[in-house]
């Protein structure tokens, strides 16, 4: 089950629905998390840690973890790190994203730490490192992204 540390009371109120759903339902709250076996380890305003065990069905044709898996895990970590910083009427959508693949992986658990660099009124910037859950916490990939901060209108 996820460990949640939300630093500001108003952040909890702003994001209660999605973050509470994840807290209460775990990976079942997000179909992609269920599909990929992603677990939420830690959430606070501007920082999230996710983990995912590598499975053989995630390999590319030559037996390495497919690169998109690193990027998808990093994207989820960055987006989830942004949620506590959003006001009640804001949402986000990825504008651009770039991943540098530093080292491949074939087995074990991946740890993704997403960090918000800056959240503006219209655009937010974030980064994520994906590391192996080994003694050295080996850096495998680094992703940076820009997110559009959207206004959600009530009907």
Tell me roughly what share of residues is in helical segments: 25-40%
Number of DSSP strands?
7
Q: Alpha-carbon distance between the termini?
A: 34 Å
- SS class: alpha+beta
Which second-level CATH architecture applies? Roll
The chain-level mean pLDDT equals 88
Count of distinct structural domains: 1
Produce a short descriptive summary:
This protein is 25% helix and 40% strand. It is an alpha+beta fold.
Description:
By secondary structure, the chain is an alpha+beta fold. The chain has one domain: Thiol Ester Dehydrase, Chain A, CATH 3.10.129. It has helices at residues 9-25, 31-36, 67-82, and strands spanning 3-4, 38-44, 47-53, 90-101, 109-119, 123-132, 139-151. Strands 1-2-3-5-6-7-4 form a seven-stranded mixed beta sheet. The longest helix is centred in the first third of the chain and has 17 residues, at 9-25. The radius of gyration is 15 Å and the shape is globular. The termini are far apart. The relative contact order is 0.18.
